[in-house]
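Notebook entry, structure prediction.
Reason for the run: the old model in the group folder had no record of what sequence produced it. Starting over properly, with the input documented here first.
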Amino acid sequence: MHFVKAKGILSATNGMNLYRGCTHGCIYCDSRSVCYQMQHDFEDVEVKENAPELLMEALRRKRQKCIIGTGSMSDPYIPQEEELQLTRRALTIIRDMGFGLAIQTKSDRILRDMDLLRDINNRVKCVVQMTLTTWDDKLCAILEPNVANTQARLRVLKAMQREGIPTVVWMTPILPFINDGEDNIRSIVEACADAGVYGIIHFGMGMTLREGDREYYYTKLDEHFPGLRQRYVRTYGNRYELSCPGWKRLEEVFSSLCDKAGIIHNEEQLFQWMRQMPQTARAEQISLFDML
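New structure, fully documented this time:
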């Protein structure tokens, strides 16, 4: 990792990333794409060492309270967080200054900050978002090798449920020919229902690939799924959006299971809910942040 002095920390839509790059090793990670213009190796994590100070100053300038989003581009609970505690410092500032939080991770390290998450939720609003791509922990170790496995993430969701903290699951990406089985979709949704998940986001049954991301993904396919790269090339060429075979049936199964369990699965509705301040706040305090 390396350290930088950032010039700013909040986007125009109230999103932030305390780190740039990641060591989780997810084989499909879109953040590797060339379009993001990262000037260093992806695993050489850039640490915005002055992020807490920048965040405090940015929140002081806010005329209205809002939800602060984090985790869309770089996981706030990468291993370096154990030592650096930038995320914990940021959450403390958000809590103390009376703002809300929507935080996204694949790591059970988030349990370390349960006290802050609970305080933020009790005072304003906190939404914890967790990615679940596969029910099979052996497959999870291939797709997301350096992060908490599926069962550990489900324990996080259940811990949040016990604390009354709402959760949203990102069931994405669904990789063609890999985790696109109906049994996998069914198992994840049923586990989400058991954990009291409020909503599931999935952006369609498939994945996206673009320059930078595609090359890394194909290298990992060669390593773990010999011959599958060639199948992708034959089926999809250089497309950006790759829909799974039988995606319509998977969509039907997914929607039916969510409806039966009372899980919200309309992406627009979920994003609007996550961005919205509690009803007790004034309507003009509603603000937007970039979750994508």
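Summary: The radius of gyration is 19 Å.
The old model has been moved to the deprecated folder.
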